[in-house]
Amino acid sequence: MISNQEKYINLSTRKRDGVFRIDLIDGVELVERLKDLRLGVEVETVENVVVDPSWFTSRFS
Hints:
Layout: H1 4-14, E1 15-16, E2 19-20, H2 27-37, H3 53-60
Antiparallel strand pairs: 1-2
């Protein structure tokens, strides 16, 4: 979580001559930031197990 002090420091360092710098990010970076901050996303881990039938037939035939 970002504290108010961190927000202030972050914003104050980006301000130059009364203009804020805007950082453009792509969709991948947006999703990574949302994931890191846990904002509106859930992370699911999926395991995909594939059985090799030839392993069984060679040993039990």
